[in-house]
Amino acid sequence: MIGSLASPYPLKSITDAELQQLTQTLWNWKICEACQNGETCINSRCSWRRSARLERFFDFYKYVTSSYVPDLLPASTPALRNHDDVFEIIRLLQAYPDMKRSELTHEYFSKRDRPPPSSDQHWAFNLAVQVMSMVKCSAENQPSGLLELGTQPIQWLYNESLAEFISRAFPQKDTGNLHIYDGSGEIRDIKSALSAKRLRKIAGLRFQGTDDLRNHLKMDVKKGLWKFTITQPSSGST
Ligand SMILES: [Zn+2]
Prior knowledge:
- By secondary structure, the chain is of the alpha/beta class.
- The protein has 2 domains: 16-169, no CATH class; 179-227, no CATH class.
- The chain is built from 8 helices and 7 strands.
- The strands form 3 sheets. A 3-stranded mixed sheet has the order 5-7-6.
- Helix 1 (16-27) packs parallel to helix 4 (83-95) and helix 4 (83-95) packs across helix 6 (118-133).
- The longest helix is centred in the middle third of the chain and has 16 residues, at 118-133.
- The radius of gyration is 21 Å and the shape is globular.
- The relative contact order is 0.13.
- The structure holds zinc ion.
Protein backbone atom coordinates (compact mmCIF):
# COMPACT_ATOMS: atom_id res chain seq x y z
CA MET A 1 0.00 0.00 0.00
CA ILE A 2 1.34 3.42 -0.93
CA GLY A 3 0.87 5.73 2.00
CA SER A 4 -2.32 6.23 3.97
CA LEU A 5 -4.92 7.59 1.63
CA ALA A 6 -8.66 7.05 1.35
CA SER A 7 -8.93 9.03 -1.93
CA PRO A 8 -6.27 10.09 -4.45
CA TYR A 9 -7.79 13.59 -4.27
CA PRO A 10 -8.27 14.42 -0.58
CA LEU A 11 -9.54 17.96 -1.35
CA LYS A 12 -11.83 16.96 -4.19
CA SER A 13 -15.02 18.23 -2.57
CA ILE A 14 -15.83 21.16 -0.30
CA THR A 15 -18.84 22.11 1.80
CA ASP A 16 -20.41 25.54 2.30
CA ALA A 17 -19.19 25.44 5.89
CA GLU A 18 -15.62 25.01 4.64
CA LEU A 19 -16.02 27.90 2.18
CA GLN A 20 -17.20 29.99 5.12
CA GLN A 21 -14.09 28.98 7.06
CA LEU A 22 -12.02 29.98 4.03
CA THR A 23 -13.42 33.53 4.11
CA GLN A 24 -12.98 33.68 7.89
CA THR A 25 -9.36 32.59 7.51
CA LEU A 26 -8.46 34.90 4.62
CA TRP A 27 -10.43 38.03 5.49
CA ASN A 28 -11.72 37.52 9.00
CA TRP A 29 -15.33 37.47 7.81
CA LYS A 30 -17.96 37.66 10.55
CA ILE A 31 -20.64 35.14 9.62
CA CYS A 32 -23.92 34.95 11.52
CA GLU A 33 -25.17 31.79 13.19
CA ALA A 34 -28.06 31.35 10.76
CA CYS A 35 -25.70 31.29 7.77
CA GLN A 36 -23.39 28.89 9.59
CA ASN A 37 -26.40 26.60 10.07
CA GLY A 38 -27.42 26.89 6.43
CA GLU A 39 -30.51 28.95 7.30
CA THR A 40 -31.79 32.25 5.88
CA CYS A 41 -29.68 35.21 6.95
CA ILE A 42 -31.46 37.87 8.97
CA ASN A 43 -28.42 39.86 10.03
CA SER A 44 -27.74 42.80 7.71
CA ARG A 45 -24.15 43.04 8.95
CA CYS A 46 -23.36 39.40 8.19
CA SER A 47 -20.34 39.06 5.86
CA TRP A 48 -21.72 35.96 4.17
CA ARG A 49 -24.30 38.13 2.37
CA ARG A 50 -21.43 39.12 0.07
CA SER A 51 -20.53 35.51 -0.75
CA ALA A 52 -22.37 35.46 -4.09
CA ARG A 53 -19.91 38.04 -5.40
CA LEU A 54 -17.05 35.67 -4.61
CA GLU A 55 -18.30 32.84 -6.79
CA ARG A 56 -15.35 33.17 -9.20
CA PHE A 57 -12.87 33.15 -6.32
CA PHE A 58 -14.53 30.07 -4.83
CA ASP A 59 -14.25 28.38 -8.24
CA PHE A 60 -10.55 29.28 -8.27
CA TYR A 61 -10.11 27.80 -4.77
CA LYS A 62 -11.96 24.62 -5.77
CA TYR A 63 -9.86 24.27 -8.91
CA VAL A 64 -6.57 24.71 -7.05
CA THR A 65 -7.45 22.34 -4.21
CA SER A 66 -9.38 19.62 -6.05
CA SER A 67 -6.43 18.87 -8.32
CA TYR A 68 -4.05 18.34 -5.37
CA VAL A 69 -2.63 14.81 -5.49
CA PRO A 70 -0.38 14.01 -2.52
CA ASP A 71 3.14 12.88 -3.24
CA LEU A 72 3.19 9.94 -0.87
CA LEU A 73 5.71 7.44 0.41
CA PRO A 74 4.80 4.17 2.18
CA ALA A 75 3.32 4.81 5.63
CA SER A 76 3.06 8.58 5.14
CA THR A 77 -0.08 10.72 5.22
CA PRO A 78 -0.90 13.57 2.82
CA ALA A 79 0.46 17.00 3.71
CA LEU A 80 -3.06 18.28 3.11
CA ARG A 81 -5.49 15.75 4.55
CA ASN A 82 -8.48 18.11 4.37
CA HIS A 83 -9.37 21.79 3.93
CA ASP A 84 -8.65 22.48 7.61
CA ASP A 85 -4.98 21.79 6.88
CA VAL A 86 -5.02 24.40 4.09
CA PHE A 87 -6.58 26.98 6.45
CA GLU A 88 -4.09 26.14 9.19
CA ILE A 89 -1.10 26.71 6.89
CA ILE A 90 -2.62 30.01 5.70
CA ARG A 91 -3.01 31.13 9.33
CA LEU A 92 0.60 30.18 10.02
CA LEU A 93 1.79 32.16 6.99
CA GLN A 94 -0.31 35.17 8.05
CA ALA A 95 1.09 35.01 11.59
CA TYR A 96 4.75 34.68 10.53
CA PRO A 97 5.24 36.56 7.24
CA ASP A 98 8.89 37.20 8.10
CA MET A 99 9.84 33.62 8.93
CA LYS A 100 11.85 31.66 6.37
CA ARG A 101 10.04 29.07 4.29
CA SER A 102 12.25 26.22 5.58
CA GLU A 103 11.54 27.20 9.22
CA LEU A 104 7.79 27.47 8.64
CA THR A 105 7.62 24.10 6.91
CA HIS A 106 9.60 22.47 9.71
CA GLU A 107 7.50 24.21 12.39
CA TYR A 108 4.26 23.00 10.83
CA PHE A 109 5.04 19.41 9.90
CA SER A 110 7.28 18.46 12.82
CA LYS A 111 4.10 18.19 14.93
CA ARG A 112 2.77 15.33 12.80
CA ASP A 113 3.30 11.73 13.91
CA ARG A 114 4.01 10.67 10.35
CA PRO A 115 5.24 13.71 8.44
CA PRO A 116 4.71 13.60 4.67
CA PRO A 117 7.70 13.57 2.30
CA SER A 118 9.33 16.95 1.84
CA SER A 119 8.10 17.21 -1.76
CA ASP A 120 4.52 16.94 -0.50
CA GLN A 121 5.19 19.46 2.29
CA HIS A 122 6.43 21.96 -0.31
CA TRP A 123 3.43 21.27 -2.52
CA ALA A 124 1.10 22.06 0.40
CA PHE A 125 2.82 25.38 1.12
CA ASN A 126 2.82 26.31 -2.58
CA LEU A 127 -0.91 25.65 -2.70
CA ALA A 128 -1.62 27.73 0.43
CA VAL A 129 0.38 30.66 -1.00
CA GLN A 130 -1.48 30.40 -4.29
CA VAL A 131 -4.81 30.63 -2.45
CA MET A 132 -3.61 33.65 -0.44
CA SER A 133 -1.90 35.59 -3.20
CA MET A 134 -3.22 34.09 -6.47
CA VAL A 135 0.39 33.55 -7.53
CA LYS A 136 1.70 30.12 -8.50
CA CYS A 137 4.89 29.37 -6.66
CA SER A 138 7.22 26.39 -6.53
CA ALA A 139 9.92 25.16 -4.19
CA GLU A 140 13.59 24.96 -5.13
CA ASN A 141 14.53 21.78 -7.04
CA GLN A 142 10.89 20.84 -7.40
CA PRO A 143 10.68 18.15 -10.10
CA SER A 144 9.15 19.55 -13.26
CA GLY A 145 6.59 16.73 -13.23
CA LEU A 146 5.07 18.29 -10.12
CA LEU A 147 4.67 21.70 -11.65
CA GLU A 148 1.38 22.71 -13.16
CA LEU A 149 0.98 23.65 -16.77
CA GLY A 150 0.24 27.25 -17.63
CA THR A 151 1.89 30.30 -16.08
CA GLN A 152 5.44 29.58 -15.00
CA PRO A 153 5.56 29.50 -11.19
CA ILE A 154 7.94 31.73 -9.25
CA GLN A 155 10.32 29.94 -6.91
CA TRP A 156 9.80 30.65 -3.23
CA LEU A 157 13.29 30.01 -1.89
CA TYR A 158 13.88 28.02 1.31
CA ASN A 159 15.75 30.85 3.01
CA GLU A 160 13.19 33.46 1.98
CA SER A 161 10.22 34.67 4.02
CA LEU A 162 6.74 35.04 2.53
CA ALA A 163 7.05 38.83 2.71
CA GLU A 164 10.31 38.68 0.74
CA PHE A 165 8.77 36.31 -1.81
CA ILE A 166 5.74 38.58 -2.34
CA SER A 167 7.85 41.69 -2.79
CA ARG A 168 9.95 39.81 -5.36
CA ALA A 169 6.79 38.60 -7.16
CA PHE A 170 5.31 42.11 -7.20
CA PRO A 171 8.20 44.54 -7.62
CA GLN A 172 6.96 48.07 -7.02
CA LYS A 173 7.19 50.36 -9.99
CA ASP A 174 6.37 54.02 -10.19
CA THR A 175 3.85 54.32 -13.01
CA GLY A 176 4.40 58.06 -13.10
CA ASN A 177 1.74 60.52 -14.10
CA LEU A 178 -0.32 60.62 -17.28
CA HIS A 179 -0.35 64.27 -18.20
CA ILE A 180 -2.41 65.83 -20.97
CA TYR A 181 -3.36 69.39 -21.92
CA ASP A 182 -7.02 70.02 -21.33
CA GLY A 183 -9.22 72.38 -23.36
CA SER A 184 -7.97 75.45 -21.50
CA GLY A 185 -4.30 74.61 -22.10
CA GLU A 186 -3.75 73.46 -18.49
CA ILE A 187 -1.82 70.26 -17.76
CA ARG A 188 -3.92 67.60 -16.01
CA ASP A 189 -3.12 64.13 -14.62
CA ILE A 190 -5.80 61.84 -16.09
CA LYS A 191 -4.88 58.66 -14.18
CA SER A 192 -7.74 59.06 -11.73
CA ALA A 193 -10.20 59.55 -14.59
CA LEU A 194 -9.38 56.22 -16.24
CA SER A 195 -12.11 53.63 -15.85
CA ALA A 196 -12.75 50.23 -17.45
CA LYS A 197 -15.82 51.65 -19.18
CA ARG A 198 -13.93 54.54 -20.73
CA LEU A 199 -10.97 52.38 -21.74
CA ARG A 200 -13.36 50.02 -23.51
CA LYS A 201 -15.45 52.71 -25.14
CA ILE A 202 -12.82 55.26 -26.06
CA ALA A 203 -9.61 53.25 -26.42
CA GLY A 204 -11.36 50.13 -27.76
CA LEU A 205 -9.67 47.85 -25.23
CA ARG A 206 -11.08 44.47 -24.29
CA PHE A 207 -10.75 42.83 -20.87
CA GLN A 208 -9.87 39.26 -20.01
CA GLY A 209 -9.95 37.57 -16.60
CA THR A 210 -6.87 35.90 -15.13
CA ASP A 211 -6.41 33.73 -12.03
CA ASP A 212 -2.79 34.79 -11.62
CA LEU A 213 -2.42 38.11 -9.85
CA ARG A 214 0.90 38.75 -11.61
CA ASN A 215 -1.09 39.26 -14.82
CA HIS A 216 -3.43 41.80 -13.22
CA LEU A 217 -3.62 44.92 -15.42
CA LYS A 218 -1.07 43.50 -17.83
CA MET A 219 -1.77 44.69 -21.32
CA ASP A 220 -1.40 42.72 -24.54
CA VAL A 221 -0.78 45.61 -26.91
CA LYS A 222 -1.11 43.52 -30.09
CA LYS A 223 -4.51 42.15 -29.15
CA GLY A 224 -5.69 45.24 -27.31
CA LEU A 225 -6.38 43.03 -24.29
CA TRP A 226 -6.13 44.15 -20.70
CA LYS A 227 -6.16 41.41 -18.08
CA PHE A 228 -7.73 41.71 -14.68
CA THR A 229 -8.01 39.28 -11.79
CA ILE A 230 -11.14 37.15 -11.48
CA THR A 231 -11.90 38.70 -8.10
CA GLN A 232 -10.42 41.21 -5.74
CA PRO A 233 -10.58 39.93 -2.19
CA SER A 234 -10.08 42.82 0.19
CA SER A 235 -7.80 42.04 3.08
CA GLY A 236 -9.27 42.55 6.52
CA SER A 237 -12.78 43.37 5.32
CA THR A 238 -15.68 42.20 7.42
ZN1 LIG B 1 -25.80 35.59 7.77
